[in-house]
């Protein structure tokens, strides 16, 4: 991966990243299934029995399990707002599921309006690799950011094209309000054109809503660190949660990677020297 400030992306592209992970697992005797949704985790008397794989639905309301993969350990990467769709709530203590449900509220989602605009000329003001931030645009109350991805990684785009990536934060509780989102997108874009007039001369533009999935849970006092659900299920042996919405350090992909590291090291019963002796949950 390559890094720009707190943003990172796979230099080989997402398909290349999954292929590298596939190769690393299969070379060591493992197997990988892509585009295969899990149905539910089977648990009995506090122990993992397996994971169901739904069969390909012929009608929208099919409710059967097509296959059961037997296992004694499951590491879930689902965020708090989805994990109880796969893990039965009844096998977890109330105090633990209440933590999950509390963090699952829309108001705690990190949500924003994504706007990608490509131009033939750069619009950055001080440095091609600058990461601009603001607390609001002239037309919208949306704190946000902007950077030129082509300047960060010239190999990721055709020569002569600059992809300007920007986002404007909105309250998580408004993410399902489609009228609000459309209006705020228009206001956000109008503000961007006033701040960066050169973006009006675009050759490509795309909008996207970061809400479901969101960019994690809001980072604020009493909602981070030890205040999040532990990555170990307290009443089920071999059930782990390697999601950045559970207890971990950092932000975004870094937090998710640290959560996964904690889960794997606990399962193996030892620390992985590759990642050093630093503190982790």
What descriptive keywords fit this protein?
FAD/NAD-bd_sf, disordered N terminus, 6 helices, FAD/NAD(P)-binding domain, 5-stranded antiparallel sheet, globular, Polyamine Oxidase, Chain A, domain 2, single chain, alpha+beta, 281 residues
Short account of what is shown:
The protein is an alpha+beta fold and 281 residues long.
Tell me the radius of gyration: 21 Å
DSSP helical segment count: 6
Low-confidence stretches: 1-5
CATH fold-type name of the largest domain: FAD/NAD(P)-binding domain
Strand order of the largest sheet: 8-9-10-7-11
What is the CATH architecture assignment of the largest domain? 3-Layer(bba) Sandwich
Helix content: 10-25%
Strand content: 15-25%
For this structure, what is the CATH class of the largest domain? Answer: Alpha Beta
Give the termini distance in whole angstroms.
24 Å
Number of strands: 12
Give the averaged pLDDT, no decimals. 91
